[in-house]
Amino acid sequence: MNTLMHLDSLRSQRISTTKKTHKAIYGQYLTPIEIANFMAALLIKYGHSEGNIELLDPGAGLGILFSAFLEKKIESSFSGCINIDAYEFDKTIIQNLNSVINRYKKYSNISIKLIQSDFIKNSAYDIGWGLNKKYSHIIMNPPYKKINSNSEYRLSLRDIGVETANLYSAFLAVSILQLQKNGVVVAILPRSFCNGLYFFPFRKFILKQTEIIQIHTFNSRRDAFKEESVLQENVIVVLRKGNDQPPNVCISSSEDKSLNDYSESFFEFSKIVNSHDEDKYIRIPALVSDKIKKENNIFTKFMELGIEISTGPIVDFRMKEKLVSGLSSNSIPLLYPIHFKGNGLIWPVVSKKPNSIILTDDEKSKIAYTNGCYVLVKRFSSKEEKKRIKAFLLLDNDIKGEYFTAENHLNIIHKNKHGIDKYLAGGLYVYLNTEYFDKKFREFSGHTQVNATDLKNIKYPTKEQIENMGIEYFKNAETDLDDIFMKVMKEYE
Fold it and tell me: How far, rounded to the nearest angstrom, does the alpha carbon of residue 227 sit from its chain's CA centroid?
């Protein structure tokens, strides 16, 4: 049995016998062989091919990643020396890891050093004192686990100028500090670092220290680590140490880890990181068909539409005493995602959720909306829903009474807590539900949570274009929303 087949067997055994609590403690999820082979190929493609190789695997696990790299180098008859530092802190996996390392002892030009210590603490100390080794190649599948703000990890990281709150970003940052000039790191990571304030310092660090060479996405969120029931959306990033960002970045994708349908395209770096974006969000353009490439006509900022978007103000468990199942003389409708089916509102509904809430006049002025036309957007999508964005249209005759309000799992588009123009509402309903908008949102955010801030940061057609979409929609509500979008946008080409 060759080494990678042996590792595939070890991986299956390990996954089936390791308790979830153990995985949670170490944040350990073993890389599938197919993904390891792809990552190794990227490291060989972009890393230097001459002279000796100094390779770091900071969370070796079973040794799947460095083995995939070695197998390709052995197959290509690489004659230089390959020196590997493999860190592994989990004592329960060391025996299997050693069995893999022993397979390479017959090669005189391969040296593998197993370092059984904490990668972050060990490296932070060495970096702080200028004792750290410099690597030409780094390949990694770092642990996924939060770091407490007052933990020893957080303090060690701050000492070397790294500010982050998750082990995976800490592993990558500390590894980058140990890269040689023009050295390359290939890492598989949760996509969550690409946006949000939580990872802002980490993004600044990456963009200061490295050049983004390639980003690979998987269209199926479930597939990459499905044997371990991991549903986090993952990306593979290729970074080169340096600050001379190439003008173009390779964006590649595949449906799943088999990579049978691999495709790639090159995008200007400004499409990935907007130089005017203070938050340094990393956008990952989708490889979409020509029929929905309309970027040149979509340039309006949300604030320029003269409307607002807010998160539903009602957190129900904090207001239990005010919730009622039906509508009474002193209550107003309370909308949840369950009240929207298909194209419109169904209220009331029989469920465990209430249908209305009792508010004082003062509370109504602060957290209620007057009857009118609105667009509401679900804040959370399930992991495998076809679309991340689901918007609903609320018309002025859908609600009984003068006021209503919305629960925290909905975003609501309004104007100073009043309704918006009917055709603007209809057009926003069309645009937000298009394949185009969903793909743009996925470029922008790797989360299943749809935040109001994220919706504001995506570009929109002009107000006139959106209103024309609304006009088309109300002519025939049965028309496909993507067709309405395409028809209107085509008129402005």
Answer: 20
